[in-house]
Amino acid sequence: MFKKILIANRGEIALRIIRTCKEMGIKTVAVYSTADKDSLHVRFADEAVCIGKPQSSDSYLNIPHLMAAAEITNADAIHPGYGFLAENARFAEICGEHGIKFIGPTPEMIRKMGDKMTAKETMIAAGVPVIPGSEGLLESVEQAKIIAKEMGLPVIMKATAGGGGKGMRVVWDESEIENAYTMAKTEAKAAFSNDGIYMEKFVEEPRHIEIQIAGDQYGKVCHLSERDCSIQRRHQKLVEESPSPFMTPELREKMGEAAIKAASAINYESVGTIEFLVDKHRNFYFMEMNTRIQVEHGVTEEVINFDLIKEQIKIAAGIPISGKNYTPQMHAIECRINAEDPYNDFRPSPGKITVLHTPGGHGVRVDSHIYAGYVIPPYYDSMVSKVIAVAQTREEAINTMERALSEFVIEGVKTTIPFHQQLMQDENFRKGNFTTKFTEGFKLQ
């Protein structure tokens, strides 16, 4: 087992990893930018190293600074968390070159699943259902028009290096193809320095359902049930839950088998997530693989009573997994609380938290790095807290979440708490009638 792990991240995920490391008897090293010097992950780690200025490129994305911090503290492993360098194959490679274990999959696995076209080809070869689409990248507007006609509209154009909704355009009418093609390429080039785009059939009334998987160094893979992440805004998840209200035992078995096939196709090692789009007829299609721990991993932990960070560390240390497939025993819902103004088009709201009271009580978990007096910096993701409500049934979980949100007080900055409170009272949400388009018609009162 590792003696000391450097956490190449910040905020609540860094704190989350520190907690599990403490329970496992592993020393921790926090890294921080000058903007994060007062953050809780810095306070609770055994050691802390400043790695640069506030901008991510000068700190959390600065590989030489991170490696120097690992060297001077004698860390024998690096946990990347999520975001930043978590799915950077070159960073994983450099860790290996320096004799430091990257807690995650191998660089080759990250590369195979990081490029969406390569991932799609891998899934087709493995027999995993994929959305019909172009073979390879689009080379011209003319080619895009021909393929769109063959598949039938609507179609969606996507950046091959994409993420977070960047470089995506839905086409409903043939006259929109040229403009969508140009806009998608331009946006992809600006966001990812790669203007490669491909086309897929647009799935109508889709659900975003993902399967949590774990694979060890010995070829064994298991799934740990599903999460429904359909409540989104601009392709960014807002609410996640397990089990999905749309799921059936038969569908869970099929999607679980497909996820295991997908991970086994690349001999996947570590925890990760296979993301699917599920249409209204419960046909499911591979969307992408996240080769890292996810923001919403706590939802799965609560419904199967399982520490995913601990499992990730154990796998990296060469410990075999049980190989058991899991079914949710409880119902859990997570609300992401962001420092944004939901009454003003979710504009970011950094600043000082003057008053803070976090909810508690039976069935409530709060993962957060904020405290009264903490200054939310403007340089990073706006998420400041995750609230998870757990109960025997979905209705009880929603009621618990309503109660928890009513107790959650954050003053000094605007947050998305009012949005989540209204969502929990929404009749369609409570009935489980929603798709990824749900928030488009959602008006905050």
Automatic annotation (TrEMBL):
Asked if the record carries the keyword Hydrolase, the reply is no
InterPro entries, alphabetized: ACC_Biotin_Carboxylase, Acetyl_CoA_COase_biotin_COase, ATP-grasp, BC-like_N, Biotin_carboxylation_dom, Biotin_COase_C, CPAse_ATP-bd, PreATP-grasp_dom_sf
Domain ATP-grasp, first and last residues per copy? 120-317
Enzyme Commission number, as recorded: 6.3.4.14
Q: Which GO terms describe its biological process?
A: fatty acid biosynthetic process; malonyl-CoA biosynthetic process
Residues covered by the Biotin carboxylation domain: 1-444
What organism is listed for this UniProt entry? Chitinophaga barathri
UniProt pathway annotation: Lipid metabolism; malonyl-CoA biosynthesis; malonyl-CoA from acetyl-CoA: step 1/1
Enumerate the PROSITE patterns for this protein: ATP_GRASP (PS50975), BC (PS50979), CPSASE_2 (PS00867)
Cite the NCBIfam families for this sequence.
Answer: accC, PRK08591.1
Reactions the enzyme catalyzes: N(6)-biotinyl-L-lysyl-[protein] + hydrogencarbonate + ATP = N(6)-carboxybiotinyl-L-lysyl-[protein] + ADP + phosphate + H(+)
Which proteins does it associate with, and in what oligomeric form?
A: Acetyl-CoA carboxylase is a heterohexamer of biotin carboxyl carrier protein, biotin carboxylase and the two subunits of carboxyl transferase in a 2:2 complex.
Tell me the protein's name. Biotin carboxylase
PANTHER family on file: BIOTIN CARBOXYLASE, CHLOROPLASTIC, PYRUVATE CARBOXYLASE SUBUNIT A
User: What top-tier enzyme class does this entry carry?
Assistant: ligase
Gene name, per UniProt, is accC
Q: Which UniProt keywords apply?
A: ATP-binding, Biotin, Fatty acid biosynthesis, Fatty acid metabolism, Ligase, Lipid biosynthesis, Lipid metabolism, Magnesium, Metal-binding, Nucleotide-binding
Q: Which Pfam families match?
A: Biotin_carb_C, Biotin_carb_N, CPSase_L_D2
